[in-house]
Design a protein that fits this description.
single chain; 320 residues; Porin
């Protein structure tokens, strides 16, 4: 099936390595932060731990997006600054793992348009028609066959949809997860789709040596047919991540990660609703704060236009 080919490729790559399995806690539990798609459940790799106990993650994502796309029957503009805070709680007991994620989502006009423009200029990255529109405005609108299917022109904030998942680690080291996303968000606040979403996925980490770890996940989501895109979301969405973690020393680690998903809006030919590919680059500070790990990272859309222009992330994690 053509739309799933990028993520299917990752599924195969995860099992090419034959070295021993190790829980290195590597990778970012990130996702496509397109504000239109955030109410839908896209599972992600779950950094975990080697022994029994708790892991608490505080994650903050700041995303600046400008996308304007048009086809013969579709028009889309996304001009917004999005903030997402996520409290993640993972508990491991022997072979079992339980997970809860509580997100808070806010959309605003923001104030980073000038900075993002300078960022793209400095690195020679494409920025579409960003410079043709007023800076720091909020406008999201999607029209299909002359009908406005999604529209937001005011700031919004609210609790997002809560994720609850259960995982089991097999003898071979793969962790199999099943999860649901509960409708604790609000379509009026653009923070939820007011439906129950289901997902199945698996995660794996392979230690190449004492410094390097390869990790990844592969899964499928079944979004509920409700919310601001009711009747338009694909029946299922394939999701995959593949990454490399490297520990430079006892204090510093680096991560490179690819995030992918298949088409999200069934009848659309627009890039922001099609197959997506983005990269995450980050540094982990292992002993900067007592008993915590601090990660700073950012993402860029490798397949231009298939994900937000840029996202900045921060994660503070603690195990006990």
């Amino acid at each position: 099936m053509k739309p799933t080919s990028p993520v299917a490729l990752v599924a195969g790559l995860l099992w090419l390595a034959c070295s021993h399995f190790a829980f290195a806690g590597t990778g970012f539990a990130t996702r496509d932060l397109n504000p239109v798609l955030q109410p839908y459940f896209l599972p992600s790799h779950i950094p975990t731990r080697a022994d029994n106990g708790w892991r608490i993650d505080h994650s903050l994502f700041i995303t600046n997006t400008f996308q304007q796309k048009t086809t013969s029957n579709e028009d889309l503009i996304i001009d917004v600054e999005n903030y997402r805070y996520e409290l993640g709680m993972t508990y491991r007991r022997d072979q079992w793992q339980a997970l809860v994620k509580l997100p808070f989502i806010a959309n605003s006009a923001g104030s980073l348009d000038g900075l993002i423009g300078d960022w793209h200029d400095f690195f020679g990255l494409p920025e579409g028609r960003r410079d043709k529109f007023p800076a720091d405005q909020l406008k999201i609108e999607y029209t299909l066959d002359g009908v406005v299917e999604y529209s937001q022109t005011r700031s919004s904030s609210g609790l997002g949809d809560t994720v609850v998942a259960l995982g089991y680690q097999s003898v071979g080291g793969t962790v199999y997860f099943a999860g649901i996303e509960l409708p604790t968000g609000s379509a009026a606040d653009f923070s939820g789709n007011e439906a129950v979403d289901f997902a199945l996925w698996l995660s794996r980490e392979v230690a190449i040596d004492t410094e390097m770890t390869v990790f990844g996940m592969f899964g499928i989501s079944f979004p509920g047919d409700d919310g601001n895109l009711e009747g338009l979301i694909a029946d299922h969405i394939w999701v995959a991540q593949l990454g490399l973690g490297y520990r430079f020393n006892d204090y510093l680690a680096g991560t490179v990660q690819l995030d992918m998903h298949s088409k999200t809006v069934e009848r659309s030919d627009l890039k922001p609703f099609g197959n997506s590919l983005q990269v995450q680059l980050g540094l982990g500070f292992l002993k900067l704060i007592d008993n915590h790990r601090l990660d700073l990272f950012f993402s860029e859309d490798i397949a231009v236009g298939t994900a937000p222009d840029i996202s900045f992330g921060l994660r503070l994690a603690r195990e006990f």
